[in-house]
Amino acid sequence: MRYQISGKQIDIGEALQTHVKTELGEILAKYAGRPTDAYVVFSKSGHEYVCESVVHLSTGLTAQATGKASEIYAAFDSSGEKMDKQLRRYKRRLKDHHAGRSQPVELSDAGSYILEPIDDSDEAAQDTVNAMIVAEMETKIPSLSVGEAVMQMEIASAPVLVFRNEKHNGINVVYRRDDGNIGWIDPKALG
């Protein structure tokens, strides 16, 4: 498994990196079959340290957790506890959904863009249709069933997930609605 442990404007020592690898390795050994990558980023927000952990599994699923504390080790431990709880909660689901899957999830390349927000006070900006692109990145779109997509969205604690529907190979979206339910957009269903 590959680890990428870094800090945003803070120095990460060898002792902390060893602690992260050991603890995260133990968590993943209990619940996840074949993790491939782990990204852990430490930052400082006011008086608190923030630890963001993302683990990619070979099944195509991604688990992520964020922890905050006044000490950097405690921030990682908080993130680790959340990751542990997520993987424990979804272990049965992961087994059930992927028991029949003989191949890993197929991933397609796509472009991802960050757009500059439109300032409501600027009347000239309101009249323009084109938004300013701040950043361009590459992202992966997984090929999943609807159930797997919902599970992936819940594991990642994401508000929305774009995926390629395995049944008809079309692009679909699942999202968390304001009423707490899950919405599913399938353009192919209307065609």
Automatic annotation (TrEMBL):
<dbReference type="Pfam" id="PF16321">
    <property type="entry name" value="Ribosom_S30AE_C"/>
</dbReference>
<dbReference type="Pfam" id="PF02482">
    <property type="entry name" value="Ribosomal_S30AE"/>
</dbReference>
<protein>
    <recommendedName>
        <fullName>Ribosome hibernation promoting factor</fullName>
    </recommendedName>
</protein>
<dbReference type="InterPro" id="IPR050574">
    <property type="entry name" value="HPF/YfiA_ribosome-assoc"/>
</dbReference>
<dbReference type="GO" id="GO:0022627">
    <property type="term" value="C:cytosolic small ribosomal subunit"/>
</dbReference>
<dbReference type="InterPro" id="IPR034694">
    <property type="entry name" value="HPF_long/plastid"/>
</dbReference>
<dbReference type="GO" id="GO:0043024">
    <property type="term" value="F:ribosomal small subunit binding"/>
</dbReference>
<feature type="domain" description="Sigma 54 modulation/S30EA ribosomal protein C-terminal">
    <location>
        <begin position="131"/>
        <end position="183"/>
    </location>
</feature>
<comment type="function">
    <text>Required for dimerization of active 70S ribosomes into 100S ribosomes in stationary phase; 100S ribosomes are translationally inactive and sometimes present during exponential growth.</text>
</comment>
<comment type="subunit">
    <text>Interacts with 100S ribosomes.</text>
</comment>
<dbReference type="InterPro" id="IPR032528">
    <property type="entry name" value="Ribosom_S30AE_C"/>
</dbReference>
<dbReference type="InterPro" id="IPR003489">
    <property type="entry name" value="RHF/RaiA"/>
</dbReference>
<comment type="similarity">
    <text>Belongs to the HPF/YfiA ribosome-associated protein family. Long HPF subfamily.</text>
</comment>
<comment type="subunit">
    <text>Associates exclusively with 100S ribosomes, which are dimers of 70S ribosomes.</text>
</comment>
<dbReference type="GO" id="GO:0045900">
    <property type="term" value="P:negative regulation of translational elongation"/>
</dbReference>
<keyword id="KW-0810">Translation regulation</keyword>
<keyword id="KW-0963">Cytoplasm</keyword>
<dbReference type="InterPro" id="IPR036567">
    <property type="entry name" value="RHF-like"/>
</dbReference>
<dbReference type="InterPro" id="IPR038416">
    <property type="entry name" value="Ribosom_S30AE_C_sf"/>
</dbReference>
